[in-house]
Design a protein that fits this description.
The complex is a heterodimer of chains A (about 750) and B (about 290).
Chain A (H helix, E strand, L loop, with lengths): L8 H5 L15 E7 L5 E7 L1 H5 L3 E5 L24 E2 L5 E7 L2 H10 L1 E6 L6 H5 L12 E9 L2 H6 L3 E9 L11 E6 L5 E5 L4 H12 L6 E4 L16 H11 L3 E4 L2 H7 L6 E9 L5 E13 L5 H10 L9 E10 L13 H18 L4 H8 L18 H16 L10 E14 L8 E8 L5 E4 L9 H13 L6 E4 L17 H28 L6 E4 L2 E4 L2 E5 H5 L5 E8 L13 E14 L5 E11 L6 H20 L5 E2 L2 E2 L18 E6 L22 H13 L10 H10 L15
Parallel strand pairs in A: 1-12, 10-11, 14-15, 18-19, 25-28
Antiparallel strand pairs in A: 1-5, 2-4, 2-6, 3-5, 7-15, 8-13, 9-10, 9-12, 13-14, 16-24, 17-18, 17-23, 20-21, 21-22, 24-25, 26-27
Chain B lengths: L6 E3 L4 H11 L3 E4 L5 H6 L7 E4 L9 E4 L2 E5 L4 H6 L1 H6 L1 H7 L5 H6 L2 H7 L5 H8 L3 E5 L4 E5 H4 E3 L2 E2 L6 E8 L5 E9 L6 E11 L5 E9 L6 E2 L1 H7 L6 H14 L10 H24 L1
Parallel strand pairs in B: 1-3, 2-3
Antiparallel strand pairs in B: 4-5, 5-10, 6-7, 6-10, 8-9, 11-12, 12-13, 13-14
Helix pairs in contact in B: 5-8, 10-11, 11-12
Classes of the chains: A alpha+beta (about 750), B alpha+beta (about 290).
The structure holds flavin-adenine dinucleotide.
Flavin-adenine dinucleotide binds next to strand 2, helix 2, helix 6, helix 7 and helix 8 of chain B.
């Protein structure tokens, strides 16, 4: 397949593309948000008088100025837009200011006087669950419980030859999108509002904003594309309500663009989790019983916490068939930063634990870990992890075979040149659900039109966050219609111009574009050909669509412009739901993607440093739509996961951020990218598969951490149960066991 | 973030620059490559009222070898030194150290003098200068003075230079005898400031006896730290595990690294010892040829 350049590529690499935070309007004001200095406190009083008197300040708002619902949250609006009596984390907003300049707005924040009475800080789920702990919300400190049971866990454990029990800790990860939250909110002359702020779901923002502003949805237009990265972090509202309230109260456009520090303080993060797994295997290497408890620190507010826990529960047994499963999860409110949606959606955490278990179990019974995986892997006709029917593919075995081949080649680790270095190879596999799951409204849709100017416009309610949806739309549309890329124009990210397509999340974009085209193509082409037949006087059957227009006998008879001229546009729309399982099992998924990862590491026994030298990812997600986009997602996802494994941790102490900026929170740089980075797509699907290409936005991030962890064990015998893996931990473990001087064979001992 | 407002001057000659500095006094600040100063201003950790841009002073950009002394003008870009064949031939340690500073982009802008005046405790150039027994030439309206690296660094980000002075040249004496060197560091990520860095320069006679040695560490104290004991322990001896052990004991006694988010004090100390052995071994091997 030819490597296509993405439609927005050139503008991006030349720096010409205007992001929404680059926009400027005349009379524009600058907004700043005052956030709580305390992780938990009662507000005694708020005085804004001094701030209002500062020259250049045009508006100061507090909870009193919220005309509608003073709350937001995709599912439950439990987060105050502007806090009235209680603050529950250091990102909670108390007031906001609009002024002539950023400096004046910043100065004005200092002049707002808020009196607080600090309350006890619940900085861990354990503390929040203690008896007598203060309640953070009316329904208590438990946001959500979820679980899944099948089989008789005790009798299956009784059949086991080995049982491994381990507790895994995974950190709070920052999305670290390049463009921090921001944009401009413009009050229009007719009383309506235009919100130019990057988001993953323009229509949802419009809905939430209408509720806050007490304004009809139709009076709000959300322009949400392009975005400088999101990774799940901009699905929830961020600065929009403040910009909107300030714009309405001043009658002027208001720009807010958070600094990195403000962003880290207020944005959502990946859920830190403590996962305990007890898993048993019999003599023949068959997994028999798998018991899991998940404790998620969801922070101060709900956002998508419940759905993420459900997702984690669904994915605890991964692509393995285990007769008895018992999973219990709890998502707990704390006074830490809010946890929410993040590429992988709870799958990353449980996969790290599960694949750690698998390697430990194989070692415990002295079986080759690849063989053991093969023995337990799900097959084409097996039910999904919650016992639901799913789209049948052989993806799990396909990626296992593909990864196993790489593993076999890489496994016999070469001797290191330096006596103090060790090389190791590790593997992990996973499956990952796409779409929102059963029982959650997951509408999709698209529109195809032949416009008056002769352009075929393809339109979706999706947003371009850098993930490459524009390239996907261009490729699928031109391939399905048979026209050239010059013939089409793409319209996304503007609620006044696009149909609703659902959220740009859950690896659903590519799937939905493909499904839409399947529905739109036939009626649209039919209309074009009927009109062309009339215009040319040729029989419809002899005409076809080709680059530039309507073709007959290998020649272009009629350009799209000629076809469009002097007639009403041809418009075809479709609305449908993301495919779900026919079995009514709450939150269960239907379309899954699969990945098998092999990592190779080099560990320096004197410094404890880990260098990931190779990362091979095999994927099964149906046909590749756009090769460069696919590579970008998987390679980029892999590097993001490498950061999660080795360096990233948003550290909080007593409810305060310790890593406040990118000088202390480190993400991988280009030199940290494994030198040998390979992506292999296993594209085959069963002949009867009706679901086409699956999205790959998340799958590249899921199984990388456990593959690296297993490679570290192979290299130096350290069993990793906590991320990120710090050099100091490696050093301590290897020194204690005398790995350097060979007093013990490297693959023994644990931590 | 953007820096607060400031006045900006771009003198065409050194004399003009010195006059401007004199006028501005404590409010003035030289900007060279801007790779340390601009981030600091953007983060609002410093807000100088008046910036004096010395990038127009082309006469301060040169690399020469005169009378067996390497002379480098302050404005010479780090990447120019990195790419200089002459430097690679006569002063391998400097060449090796420079490749470990930041990234290609920062080295293209960052200057030799800027890094030395900035004096980050784990920066490569101050450490290399100290190890190589170099000095700096400092010019003001009234005088030109020379300060040895050993005396130049005072404490964290502080050196023996006044706001009215310009560092004009860096000089490094070159060795004729058989010598070897090594520069190694450990950073959390490639291109980050080192957690700990170590540098060694050594001369050895035909029998493998060490005739001179300088060992220094970065990141373990507020300034680059010369391990004076190394000279006493190793001079007149062949390198051995036992002697290296003695040197690391001195390292442990003399350094007092801090704990921060990136590494604990203990880990830094451990790295200091590991890197000490690595640079001693490599410098010795190289000196022996
Ligand atoms: C991403 C990044 C990574 C980096 N990594 C490293 C690293 O790993 N190791 C490292 O050592 N450095 C690193 N740096 C810093 C870099 O090397 C700087 O270039 C250097 O520290 C300062 O040099 P400059 O020419 O840019 O000086 P400037 O930033 O212009 O100035 C720095 C200071 O020196 C003063 N000054 C400059 N020239 C003179 C002069 N001639 N006389 C008197 N005062 C003067 C200025 O007033 C200012 O106080 C990094 C920088 C960045 C942005």
């Amino acid at each position: 397949m030819a490597k296509k350049i993405r439609p927005d590529g050139k503008e991006k690499v030349t720096g010409r593309l205007k992001y929404l935070t680059d926009l400027a309007f005349s009379n524009m004001l600058y907004g700043k948000i005052l956030r709580s200095p305390y992780p938990h406190a009662r507000i005694l009083s708020i005085s804004t008088d001094k701030a209002r008197q500062l020259p250049g300040v045009q508006a100061v708002i507090t909870h009193k100025d919220v005309p509608g619902l003073n709350g937001f949250g995709i599912v439950t609006p439990d987060q105050p837009v502007l806090c009235k009596d209680i603050v529950r984390y250091v990102g909670d907003a108390v007031a906001a200011v609009a002024a002539d300049s950023v400096e004046t707005a910043t100065r004005a924040l200092e002049l707002i006087h808020v009196q607080y009475a600090p309350l006890p800080v619940l900085d861990s789920p354990e503390k929040a669950l203690e008896e007598g702990a203060p309640l953070l919300h009316p329904n208590g400190n438990v946001l959500h419980r979820a679980g899944f049971q099948k089989g008789d866990i005790e009798s299956e454990f009784a059949k086991c030859a080995a049982i491994v029990e381990e507790t895994y800790h995974v950190p709070r990860q920052l999305h670290a999108y390049m463009e921090t939250e921001g944009g401009v909110i413009v009050p229009e002359k007719d009383g309506s509002l235009t919100v130019y702020v990057g988001t993953q779901h323009g229509f949802k923002d419009r809905f939430q904003l209408a509720r806050i502003l007490g304004m009809p949805e139709e009076h709000i237009r959300v322009v949400s594309s392009p975005m400088g990265g999101s990774f799940g972090g901009k699905d929830e509202l961020n600065i929009q309500p403040y910009g909107a309230l300030l714009a309405l109260s001043t009658g002027k456009p208001v720009k807010i663009h958070q600094t990195r520090q403000e962003s880290i303080r207020s944005s959502i993060k990946r859920h830190p989790m403590k996962i305990t797994m007890k898993t048993g295997i019999d003599q023949d290497g068959r997994l028999r019983a798998h018991q899991t408890t998940i404790v998620a620190d969801t922070g101060a507010y709900a956002t998508l916490g419940p759905a993420i826990l459900d997702f984690a529960v669904e994915h605890t047994s991964g692509p393995y068939m285990i007769p008895a499963v018992d999973t219990k999860g709890i998502s707990v409110f704390t006074n830490n930063g809010v946890s929410g949606e993040f590429r992988g959606f709870g799958g990353n955490q449980v996969t790290f634990a599960l694949e750690g278990q698998i390697d430990r179990l194989a070692a415990a019974i002295g079986m080759d870990s690849v063989e053991m995986r093969r023995l337990n892997i799900r097959r084409e006709h097996d039910l999904g992890p919650l016992g639901q029917q799913i789209a049948e593919t052989n993806g799990a075995l396909d990626v296992l075979q593909s990864a196993a081949a790489v593993y076999a080649e890489k496994k016999p680790s070469s001797q290191n040149q330096d006596r103090w270095k060790r090389t190791g190879t590790g593997m992990a596999i996973t499956m990952h659900g796409g779409g929102l799951g059963f029982g959650r409204m997951d509408p999709a849709g698209g529109r195809l039109s032949l416009k008056e100017d002769g352009k075929i416009e393809i339109s979706f309610g999706f947003e371009e966050a850098g993930q490459g949806i524009l390239a996907v739309i261009e490729t699928i549309t031109t391939e399905q219609l048979g026209c050239a890329k010059e013939d089409i124009s793409i319209m996304i990210g503007d609620t006044s111009l696009v149909p609703s397509s659902g959220s740009t999340t859950a690896s659903r974009g590519t799937s939905m574009v493909w499904h839409s085209l399947q529905r739109l193509k036939k009626p649209f082409l039919q209309k074009l050909l009927t009109r062309a037949a009339r215009k040319t006087g040729t029989k419809e059957g002899q005409l076809s669509i080709g680059p530039g227009g309507i073709w007959e006998n290998g020649e272009c008879r009629l350009s799209f412009r000629e076809l469009a001229s002097e007639q009403a546009p041809i418009v075809i729309s479709t609305q449908f739901d993301f495919p779900v399982s026919p079995d009514p099992i709450d939150s269960a998924h239907f379309l899954y993607t699969y990945s098998g990862v092999v990592a190779q590491v080099e560990v320096d026994l004197l410094t404890g440093r880990i260098n990931v030298t190779e990362l091979h990812q095999s994927l099964s997600a149906g046909p590749v739509v756009n090769e460069m986009g696919y590579l970008g997602q998987i390679e980029g996802g892999g590097v993001m996961a490498l950061g999660y494994t080795l360096m990233e941790d948003v550290i909080m102490a007593d409810g305060h951020y310790v890593t406040e900026n990118l000088d202390s929170y480190l993400i991988p740089g280009i030199k940290d990218v494994p030198f040998n980075l390979q992506v292999k797509a296993v594209e085959s699907l069963p002949a009867e598969d009706d679901y086409g290409p699956r999205g790959v936005g998340e799958i590249g991030t899921i199984a990388v951490a456990p593959a690296i962890a297993n490679a570290i064990y192979d290299a130096v015998g350290l069993r990793v149960s906590q991320l990120p893996v710090k050099p100091e931990t490696v050093l301590k473990s290897t020194e204690e066991r005398g790995v350097l001087h060979g007093s013990q064979s490297s693959n023994s001992g644990g931590n | 973030m953007k820096p607060p407002k400031f006045e900006y001057y771009k003198p065409a000659t050194l004399e003009e620059a010195l006059n401007l500095l004199e006028e501005a006094g404590d409010d003035g600040k030289i900007i060279a490559g801007g790779q340390s100063l601009v981030p600091i201003m953007n983060m609002r950790l410093a807000s100088p009222k008046c910036l004096i841009d010395i990038n127009g002073l082309e006469e301060l950009s040169y690399i020469k070898n005169e009378d067996n002394t390497l002379k480098i003008g302050t404005l010479t870009r780090q990447s120019d030194v990195e790419q200089s064949e002459m430097v690679a031939n006569v002063c391998g340690l400097l060449a090796e150290a420079i490749t470990q500073i930041g990234h290609v982009q920062t080295r293209n802008r960052g200057t030799i003098g800027g890094s030395i005046v900035h004096a980050d405790p784990s920066a490569e150039l101050p450490l290399a200068l100290l190890t190589l027994n170099g000095s700096v030439q400092i010019t003001s309206k009234d005088e030109v003075r020379t300060v040895a690296a050993e005396d130049f660094f005072i404490t964290y980000l502080t050196t023996d230079i006044m706001p009215t002075e310009v560092l004009t040249e860096v000089t490094i004496p070159l060795m004729e005898e058989k010598s070897g060197y090594s520069f190694q560091e450990v950073a959390r990520r490639h291109g980050d400031f080192a957690l700990v860095a170590a540098a060694c320069h050594m001369t050895v006679d035909d029998e493998g006896i060490i005739t001179a040695v300088r060992l220094a560490l970065g990141g373990v104290e507020a300034i680059p730290l010369l391990i004076g004991d190394a000279e006493d322990i190793l001079t007149g001896e062949q390198l051995s595990d036992l002697l290296m052990e003695q040197v690391t004991e001195s390292v442990e006694m003399e350094s007092d690294p801090e704990s921060d988010l990136h590494a604990s004090s203990e880990y830094r100390m451990h790295l200091a010892k590991v890197l000490t052995k690595r640079v001693l071994t490599q410098a010795y091997e190289r000196a022996r040829g």
